[in-house]
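To: structure desk
From: M.T.
Subject: fold request, one chain
Message: Could you run this one when you get a chance? Sequence is below, nothing fancy, just the single chain.
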Amino acid sequence: MMSENPADLLPELCVLGAAVIGLLIGSFLPRSRQWIVVALCASGLVAGLVAAAFAARRADLMTFDAFMLDPVTHVTRIVVLAATLLVVLLSIGPMRGHRRESEFYVLLLLAALGTIALGAASDLLVLMAAYLLASIPGYALAGFGKDAPGTEAALKYFLMGAFLGILMLTGITLLYGLGRGTSYETLRAELATAPAGAVMVGVVLLLAGLLFKAGAAPAHFWVPDVTEGAPPVVATFVTTVPKIGAFAALYRFATEALPPATGDWPLLVAVIAAATMTLGNLAAFAQDNVRRLLAYSTVSQAGYLLVPIAVAGRTDLAEPALLFYLAAYAVTNIGAFAVVIAVGRDELTAYRALMRRSRLLAVSLVICLLGLVGTPPTAVFVGKVLMFGAALDGDYTWLAVVAAVNTVASVFYYLRWITPAFARDTEPVGRLDRTAQWAAYLAAAGSLVLGVGSGVALTVG
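Reply: Done. Structure tokens follow.
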């Protein structure tokens, strides 16, 4: 079905409207009343979530010849909006009274809007525009603290994003020339008769930009520096939300734009997946800074998320595996970062005796970290089961074995963080951020509910 009704984009319009109005009124409000902008942005996200939930019940359709409304878009919308809403909740304490408080929330919403567009784009030009919209606010957010680590993080983030974005644009140009169009439908028909070598060059160049947004190897080097140098709430956002749109975009490109037999595309993605999960785990082993540990954890998670993309079109399990894993990863990763924000320190030693300071927070940390491993009954466990099933059904048994070995290996560095939290030989010190505590509780509960209720979620999907 084809449509050009603006109401089809109501979730995106809610977010855009909240961002624009928030920027305008925030320019005239005194610093003591910037909470109005926070409430407005949160309301825009909630309205977008409601609109996205209703839109998910409709039949698939293409709107404005470039924006696909299907299960991939519906899940991308809901997960991105819900994750951004959690980040807004986490930001209330750290950003309260900041002289650029309004701008912070506006940048969050614009980056989220670009992420949704990434996942829904079915045209190369819209994909590139979405990449820029998802990236540019992120560069500003990384340096929002205006301190030395933040400035360095923002510079690295920008330079790497700009370089890989240029490669992506080059790939889009090449694919446009070979496919005689930019829409995925046209590309799928025309690229089948184009020179296979030239097509693969264009695909690899396009991958550069999307792998950067996903935080996957070899475009992952920005992740630890930005996660450590940027404000903690920004690190939470950039290691979670942009990935959702990037993986949705990769899946859509693989299934809608590429002809069934395009070179060694599946093998290339499978090798990148194996390298990403392995490098992320190896780098995480020696980390004593919890933010860098989580950064490399997100890199390894990107490797697992690439597995369903490697088998896209080869098994019916690929789509549900990817979409459920994205939702599970988002809520679990935000929960782990919420604990970091609540404690307010990055050293592993700062988490000694956390159980004596807050039992619920310590339990939330355990749920989220073991959830990232893939321990039942958390949501990531279900996502990994689906991922393993997709790899086996798609005849990539070796990739399933690599993923299983990496999953077992990851237990070690997560336990290095969990064990001190239950120590009794240290007197607990420091105050905890109340808002971040509640965000951690909510995320941990969400991970459990999504895991236990996975049968219902997958049936509805």
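Reply (cont.): The first strand starts at residue 2 and ends at 3. Let me know if you need anything else for the meeting.
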